[in-house]
Specification:
345 residues, alpha/beta, TIM Barrel, binds S-adenosyl-L-homocysteine, two-stranded parallel sheet, DNA polymerase, domain 1, 2 domains
Length: 345
């Protein structure tokens, strides 16, 4: 039997092509696409003739992940451990913010980037996710919470720009007005700083919000905690960020994990302010400070409150707004990577 095709990864044009190849009218593509993107099975596609539904069932598969485990926080955050068709596990998190319900999704099973403080990369990369597996996380979370999702952050397990084509395809699918219709302005992609990927994304014409995991203000410190910096050092990364802003008009956010004794001194703060201003010129930037989550295999300790306050003040003097990330779901260990690790032996 021929392999079933992954229909939830298909654009409307690709579904049309398939329909044409089996002698069905093209206009059905939009109907099928809309059903698929509202989380329905082939049997539920009531305006599609039964014969076509049967034909689809024989040839295609809807690859949405299944819920393996679920943890609900007092603050409404829900953390999911999800199982993919081949048994791989990933994580997704549902969060309620004032600006809307947000899902944090994974882009890869594991991660090849090797950041020293991060749990997701401890066992390397197993495989990249398909567009359907990214989309499926949002559909599964909407179905389970019975709440509409308005924002997506690609800040779960994996490096989205290491899985570039599937990420961009997912972004186009999830923002399609005939599908989930989540506006590109409500989606942010977080990257550890793969410069060619940032440049390519800049030229896609999508205006996606970019979040950069910076975590240090000098190359020596950054390379010691983020191996990617050896390939794309800070100056090159920030120049690419400026060009991204210049072309798309989208403000860039910088993630900065506060690790005691590693990157949190006043000298680090001064240098961060200086390096951001030098490369980002007068463009608006925002720094998110995230006290490091202790990963038991890693041994990093979070900065104390007074250190974080001082860091924020130093950046403010340079006209750079920095805020400490509000941490949701801290009672259920909602930050990514650790749950998957505890299951994958
Ligand atoms: N690979 C992408 C997407 C992952 S996003 C990226 O690097 O941006 C996950 C965010 O959480 C990143 O900013 C990452 O650096 C940060 N992070 C990873 N481990 C962490 C930890 N132990 N404590 C705090 N933040 C962490």
């Amino acid at each position: 039997m021929a392999e079933l095709f992954d229909i939830l990864s298909c654009s409307k044009a690709e579904i049309e092509q398939y329909l044409t190849s089996v002698g069905e009218p093209k206009y059905r593509a939009k109907q099928i696409f809309t059903w698929l993107h509202s989380g329905k099975s082939f049997d539920e596609m009531t305006n599609v003739p039964k014969s076509l539904r049967e034909q689809l069932k024989e040839n295609a598969i809807i690859r949405a992940p299944e819920i393996e485990e679920k943890y609900v926080s007092r603050d409404g955050t829900v953390k999911y451990l999800l199982r993919l068709f081949d048994g791989e596990l990933i994580e997704a998190v549902f969060m309620k913010y004032n600006h809307g319900n947000t899902v944090c999704i994974s882009s890869e099973a594991g991660c090849p980037m090797g950041c020293k403080f991060c749990a997701s990369t401890l066992k390397g990369l197993t495989r990249k996710l398909t567009p359907s597996e990214m989309l499926g996380q949002v559909l599964t979370v909407e179905k389970d919470t019975k709440q509409r999702v308005s924002n997506i952050v690609m800040m779960g397990i994996g490096e989205p720009l290491d899985n570039y084509d599937n990420t961009v395809k997912f972004l186009r699918l999830v923002s399609d007005p005939d599908g989930m219709n989540i506006g590109l302005r409500h989606i942010s992609v977080s990257t550890c700083g793969i410069v060619p990927g940032i440049n390519k994304l800049r030229d896609e014409g999508m205006g996606i919000t970019l979040s950069i995991s910076l975590h240090a203000s000098d190359d020596e410190t950054r390379s010691s905690i983020m191996p990617v910096n050896k390939k794309y050092p800070i100056a090159e990364l920030l120049d690419a960020c400026y060009e991204y802003f210049d072309k798309t008009g989208r403000r860039i956010s910088f993630e900065y994990t506060m690790i005691k004794g590693v990157n949190d001194s006043p000298v680090h703060a001064e240098r961060l302010g200086a390096v951001l201003r030098r490369h980002m010129k007068s463009s608006p930037v925002h720094v998110n400070l995230i006290p490091v989550n202790t990963v038991k295999e890693r041994g990093f300790v979070r900065s104390d409150e007074a250190t974080i306050v001082r860091f924020i003040e130093i950046l403010a003097k340079r006209g750079i707004t920095a805020t400490k990330r509000r941490s949701l779901g801290s009672d259920i260990n909602a930050s990514c990577g650790q749950l998957r690790n505890s299951k994958n032996h």
